[in-house]
Amino acid sequence: MESTREHEPCRLGVRVTSDVRLCLLNNEGRSELFYCHSSILTEKSKFFAEKLSSLDSTTCIEINCSKLDYDHHVKLLELLYLPCESHLGFYGSVKSALGILQVAIAFQCEEITHSCVQYLEAIPWDNKEEEEIMEAASKLGPLAVPILARIQPVDFTVAKSVFVSAFHFATSTAGPCPPFGEELKSSAQEQIEFMLREDEDMPLITVDDEVKSVVKRGLSFMFSSFESKLSSLLNESDLASKTAEADILQGLSDIDWMSDILPKMELMKDFVAMWAETSENILGIVEDQKLKSVMWGLKLKLIEVCGKVLEAVGYGNVILPADFRVQILKLWLPFIRKMKPLLDSKSDEEASFPYKMDEDLCQSIEGAIVSFVLALPSNDQADILADWMKAEQVKYPDLTEAFEVWCYRTKSAKRRLTETVDEVDDAPISL
Known about the structure:
Layout: E1 20-25, E2 31-36, H1 38-44, H2 46-52, E3 61-63, H3 70-80, H4 94-106, H5 110-122, H6 127-137, H7 144-147, H8 156-170, H9 181-196, H10 209-233, H11 242-261, H12 268-286, H13 296-314, H14 322-349, H15 359-374, H16 378-390, H17 400-426
């Protein structure tokens, strides 16, 4: 082979100093020649070193490449002529680096392969680029390990630590919030829901006793904080203050959010227990004369959260003793019956009044109450149905179904009792 000119640096495509040619299939499907230098190719590529060891000066190296990876082959040739420290600034994009990496592996260019991996490991990816990397990684073998480090499954202890920290922010139990606290809190709540979600993938976090303990403490803190803020309302001089109501509503919204995630952690029973424990105090404050014509948003939100409690208990997702269930229903049913017509009336008076029980909420609560009542002992059912029919407002909730079932069951029970007594009377007496 013809030697290069002394002291003149080798540059790709300089025919006068070239001693070997590469033939690539270009984007139009035609062969294209590149004038190269055996000293560069041999030093930077084991593939080319092997090829050149068996070629004479009149033969060129033919490289078959598709239209899709033609540009990557050309860029690889350019990289062979660049110093190693310039490689990282050359790639320009994830797509380009991925393409060059696959060609570099095929041509056994260790220096370029290493810099491609280094680039891909450090550069930020968007969602589409991550998908491209995942697809390419299956063909890279062990080389893909450092590239994929950022998306590997984490250790359970690490995941649990992140979950606990996020939970503290989501429940405002982490102390004073920074200026961006509300944004972080909202994000933390969304990510906790995602970590607990059971879809086609496994949940990100395994809920063990330690996690449950943290969540229970957070739940207790939230109820305690809400009760405290609610109690302070009665000492407020301006009960119509939007700021006071917003603060209370935020605390109740956080409790509402907890009612959505706790079933995924098998802790809804703890939520219902705390709701029942605080209900009498909450209703005592909300029904105080001072709050008679204000805080409509708070009252509606209480009904929404109570609806979730009624559903959990009424449909058997949370199992509680009968007396406990009776207590919950006897506390909240009168409040719901009183608030529904008041909210409807306010909405009729003011077209812009935003606090009204929509149809879906009304139906879900009504269905839950009917199921709730029918699962109680018959005497407790009778008490609740009697109170319901005595009330001035019998329209909502409609417990007609529960009343009909109670009548049928009561009559059937009486008939069964009579038949049993008759059987006992007719039984022969043996001495």
